[in-house]
Design a protein that fits this description.
Length: about 180
């Protein structure tokens, strides 16, 4: 089973799923999409590395004030990371699965597999951020592999997911290119 064409993020991540009687109706789908956009907005903020300014930092310009903002941003990142680690200790995360995520699909391997049909998937993409990305879709099963094609057709959600996947992919490539002594 392939995750489709294009960019994807592959990692060992906490993932949970639950079977649904049917895909969410329009109002529930709207709420799910809005919540997912909010989670992705936070994850994108965390995924931006030092020197990769958010829109508000870029608008502040460079110079002394820009450097001060970047230092404050790094300190805030550290506080968020520590807080996230404390919350993770208090929260029972779902089991780890080898996951392949694209903007349209998530694939994972598991001994426990859903029946084909509607499911809700909760995926923890960054352990510094305790809230999971929750999306529903239709599950397909092939042996021990599960593929869920996301039901949401919201272009803003898809764009945010593509951007996050791009940043995670770029960061992975950067780690792979770095000499092992660093």
């Amino acid at each position: 089973m392939e995750a489709g064409e294009g960019l994807y993020h592959e990692a060992l991540l906490p993932l949970a799923w639950r079977a649904l009687p049917e895909l969410p109706g329009p109002e529930m789908a709207r709420q799910e999409t809005e919540a997912a956009r909010e989670v992705l907005r936070s994850l994108l903020t965390l995924a931006l590395g030092p020197g990769e300014a958010t829109d508000d930092v870029a608008a502040a310009g460079g110079g002394e004030r820009g450097g001060e903002l970047l230092r404050l941003e790094r300190k805030l990142d550290l506080v968020l990371e520590l807080l996230g680690r404390l919350l993770i200790r208090a929260e029972n995360l779902p089991p780890l699965h080898k996951v392949r995520l694209s903007a349209e699909t998530v694939l994972w391997q598991s001994d426990e597999i859903p029946s084909p049909g509607p499911v809700a998937v909760e995926l923890h993409l960054d352990l510094r951020y305790p809230l999971p990305l929750c999306l529903s879709g239709n599950a397909q099963v092939d042996g021990d592999q599960v593929r869920v094609d996301f039901a949401s057709a919201d272009p803003t959600l898809r764009d945010a997911l593509e951007r996050l996947i791009f940043l995670l992919h770029r960061r992975r490539l950067g780690r792979e290119r770095r000499p092992s002594g660093r």
